[in-house]
Specification:
The complex is a heterodimer of chains A (170) and B (624). Chain A is mainly α and 170 residues long. Chain A has a domain of 104 residues. Chain A is built from three helices and no strands. Chain B folds into four domains: 45 residues; 63 residues, no CATH class; 137 residues, Penicillin-binding protein 2a (Domain 2); 337 residues, DD-peptidase/beta-lactamase superfamily (Beta-lactamase, 3-Layer(aba) Sandwich). The longest helix of chain B has 60 residues. The chains are: A mainly alpha (170), B alpha+beta (624). The interface between A and B is medium-sized, with 30 and 40 residues.
Chain lengths: 170, 624
């Protein structure tokens, strides 16, 4: 309901009966029933009438699209606003994580290397430790893999490895 | 009628009057209304204009604001910017130095320097007594009592430097105190967790803020190690007591974040370095030697697996050493006369020149007279003249006379030029600073005086660094190619993948056949000759001992001061490592290369076998 004065439709359009028959028949009936007090409006006397509905349609289309756009832009702007709050928060959280990880890395490296140094230092002091003799090392020749063995259906695939040096110290 | 008329007229007049009065009154009230409306409108308009003017004044004109908590003399925009922006400096430390197996040899730590301003001791704008702060700080700092701190606070009002080396845990504690006048400044401090173990290789970095490197790899590779600090000026706000940074509002001039975690990888093996150091220290202690060095080099590409020089220092506390000679790595910087360890190289030169063949024999007369000088073997008193010796035997017995006779066959000028080709007087581009080029006598003297080629034949009369000597022996070991020794492998990431490394280059100085022949001759030295102390059953090791007298500045040689050395190449069938041990001025009886230096090389080679798992070349006899 707008505040503008509404056009007086009753003066121009009478309440039409239902459309049942041909147009000519309608016109006859329309003419005969409505001839009393209403003015009969001919189609040609309002030249703007042809264009108005189109203009109105265009305007209403524009209004609908602009309303849709306004809604979309409002949603987008709320989204952006929320992101301006969230994204720096997340960035800062990740940066704090980075700093924590770097600090832990520094601590771990320090502890790790200090332990290594301590072990080496104590090993040097210890009189009972010495470099192991090469005679006590065990060298094993790599096992020869026989390609024909794969065709065997037996499940035992273990090879016996020959130890090169039998005279171990134990 | 008139009465009524007059009454009527009076009534009318009255009516008229009241109408006029009413009109006047309504007019007056209307005017009043208008006036009041105007008045209120005027007040509102003046208020708005006043506000707009103040707004303009504050925003555009930007005056200096004076209120209680504001910093003195700053405009509003300045105060706003101070509050809202901060400089965020990222953790960009100096690159780590790691060894071959990614053990960290040098890394950066964060330490804090604490500055105290007693006139600002406030918490939430309320003053806090200095005694309370002194007590809490005494707990955190640890090396001062609260009374001492209180005395300090009363002396100065601002700028007291309390402690320079606070660890990271102290920062949380001090921040938790929430006192205004405590200022923490972040520094990077270089930390060497293995202390003196690899100090001669890594060098050290100054403790002050300039952090200039002073020795070792830190000095030569400074361009690779040093990184430019990156700090962003960022907008910052606070939410729930934590800082929130706004990275989206950075200026265009900020550099993009280019962070990588590459480390400088060395070819040094820390375990082998420890083994070498232990072996060297043991012998130096036993013989009370002045100094010593041990070098292990991979002959195939020149990668140095261990470089030990004693005496050494702890780079964490470099300022405690008053004798600055510990900071140089004398294996690289100091010259010495190699003595008998140079004999195999001379034989290789002679073989390449074609003046001798591998099966020649020479008559060892025990002593030989050259012009006015007499040169003797080192064991002439005990063994005398040995007679006909083959080339391997000359090496085994380390016969000076035999060597002189060999090198006599070579023209002195050719000999001199061959020595130059070896690069004795050339500079070696090495990753540790201070390399000294070797010294030969000048060409004229060498070619004219007969004694010069003779002394050079048994390794005296010229000098070179231990590094140069091992480079020449490595050339014998890898079929005659002289390769550049290096300590730096390149920049590697955490997975060990190398990102940047320098390409090696080599120069052929011996023929491959000669190199192999001489190597086999050197093997007999370890099997039967003076290098028996370095023998390891089951493994083929080639070596040569060296005992030379030290030259004194006045000319001539010191009778008592010796420098003993031993060079070993192992395994002979496919040479991989060359090991050199030099011990300077061992004291006591029977101090020769065979007794002092050869056991060091033996221990080092045992260490190599254990670390690398090198299988023996020959089967071990069951009696041993």
């Amino acid at each position: 309901m707008s505040a503008q004065p509404q056009p007086d439709f009753d003066r121009y359009y009478s309440p039409q009966p239902e459309f049942t028959g041909l147009i000519t028949h309608e016109r006859h009936r329309a003419k005969s029933t409505t001839i009393q007090r209403k003015k009969v409006v001919k189609q040609g006397s309002f030249p703007q009438q042809n264009r108005l509905p189109q203009n109105l349609k265009l305007l209403s289309a524009i209004q609908k699209t602009s309303f849709g756009l306004a809604l979309a832009s409002m949603l987008a702007s709320t989204g952006l606003y929320i992101s301006t709050v969230q994204i720096p928060g997340q960035w800062s959280q990740e940066y704090r994580n980075l700093e924590d990880l770097q600090r832990q890395e520094r601590q771990l490296i320090t502890i790790n290397e200090k332990i290594k140094y301590q072990i080496a230092h104590d090993a040097r002091r210890d009189r009972n430790l010495s470099i192991s003799q090469p005679e006590s090392a065990v060298f094993i020749a790599p096992a020869k893999v026989d390609s024909k063995a794969q065709l065997k259906t037996s499940s035992n695939n273990q090879e016996v490895v020959k130890i090169k040096y039998d005279n171990l110290g134990y | 009628m008139t009465k009524s008329k007059s009454k009527l007229s009076r009534q009318v007049q009255k009516n008229r009057a009241t109408g006029i009065n009413k009109k006047n009154k309504s007019q007056q009230s209307k005017q009043h209304l208008l006036l009041r409306l105007f008045f209120i409108w005027g007040v509102l308009v003046i208020g708005t204009v006043g506000l707009a003017a103040k707004l303009y004044y504050l925003q555009v004109v930007n005056p200096v604001i004076v209120y209680e908590q504001a910093p003195k003399g700053k405009t509003l925009t300045q105060i706003a910017q101070d509050q809202q922006t901060t400089k965020l400096s990222f953790y960009i430390p100096r690159r780590q130095i790691v060894d071959r197996d990614q053990n960290v040899l040098a890394t950066d730590r964060i330490t804090y320097t604490l500055y105290v301003h007693p006139h600002l001791f406030k918490r939430n704008s309320e003053p806090v007594p200095a005694s309370e702060i002194a007590e809490k700080l005494a707990d955190i700092i640890g090396n001062r009592t609260s009374k001492q701190l209180l005395a300090l606070f009363q002396k100065q009002e601002w700028g007291i430097r309390l402690s320079g080396d606070l660890p990271e845990s102290a920062r949380d504690k001090i921040a938790a105190m929430q006192i205004d006048g405590l200022d923490l400044k972040q520094n990077y401090t270089r930390f060497y967790p293995h202390r003196e173990m690899a100090a001669e290789v890594t060098g050290y970095v100054n403790l002050d803020s300039s952090r200039t490197p002073q020795a070792g790899v830190e000095y030569t590779q400074n361009k690779l190690l040093e990184r430019q600090p990156i700090s962003w000026k960022m907008k910052r706000s606070f939410s729930k007591n934590q800082a929130v940074f706004h990275p989206g509002e950075l200026e265009r001039s900020q550099k993009l974040f280019n962070f990588d975690d590459l480390r400088l990888q060395l070819t040094i093996d820390l375990r082998l370095q420890q083994i070498a150091r232990n072996a060297l220290n043991k012998q130096m202690k036993a013989f009370k030697a002045k100094r010593g060095t041990a070098i292990v080099m991979d002959v195939r590409d020149g990668a140095i697996a261990a470089l030990v020089s004693e005496p050494t220092y702890d780079p964490n506390t470099y300022y405690q050493y008053s004798d600055f000679s510990v900071f140089k790595n004398w294996a690289v910087t100091d010259l010495y006369e190699p003595g008998s360890t140079f004999k195999p190289i001379n034989i290789a030169l002679a073989l390449d020149a074609g003046v001798i063949s591998p099966h020649d024999t020479f008559n060892d007369t025990g002593e030989i007279k050259i012009k006015d000088a007499v040169v003797r073997n080192h064991d002439f008193e005990k063994k005398g003249a040995r007679g006909e010796l083959s080339l391997p035997e000359i090496l085994q017995y380390s016969s000076n006379v035999g060597m002189i006779k060999i090198m006599r066959r070579l023209d002195p000028l050719d000999y001199y030029q061959d020595l130059q080709k070896l690069g004795v007087e050339d500079k070696v581009e090495f990753d540790i600073p201070g390399y000294t080029t070797g010294r030969l006598k000048n060409e004229v003297e060498f070619t004219v005086r007969e004694i010069e080629p003779a002394t050079t034949a048994f390794g005296q009369g010229f000098s070179l660094t231990p590094l140069k000597l091992i480079q020449l022996h490595a050339a014998l070991a890898n079929k005659g190619k002289l390769i550049t020794p290096h300590v730096v492998k390149g920049l590697s990431d955490y997975k060990g993948y190398l990102h940047y490394s320098q390409p090696p280059h080599s120069k052929q100085v011996f023929s491959p056949k000669t190199a192999t022949t001489v190597l086999e001759m050197m093997e007999t030295v370890v099997e039967d000759g003076s290098g028996v102390a370095a023998k390891i059953p089951g493994y083929r090791i080639a070596g040569k001992t060296g005992t030379s007298q030290k030259a004194i500045t006045e000319g001539g040689y010191d009778e008592t001061a010796k420098i003993t050395s031993f060079v070993g190449i192992f395994p002979v069938e496919a040479p991989r490592y060359a090991v050199l041990a030099v011990v300077d001025e061992p004291n006591g009886e029977h101090t020769y290369g065979s007794t002092v230096a050869a056991p060091i090389v033996g221990s080092i080679i045992q260490g190599i076998i254990n670390i690398e798992g090198i299988p023996p070349s020959k089967s071990i006899k069951s009696e041993e």
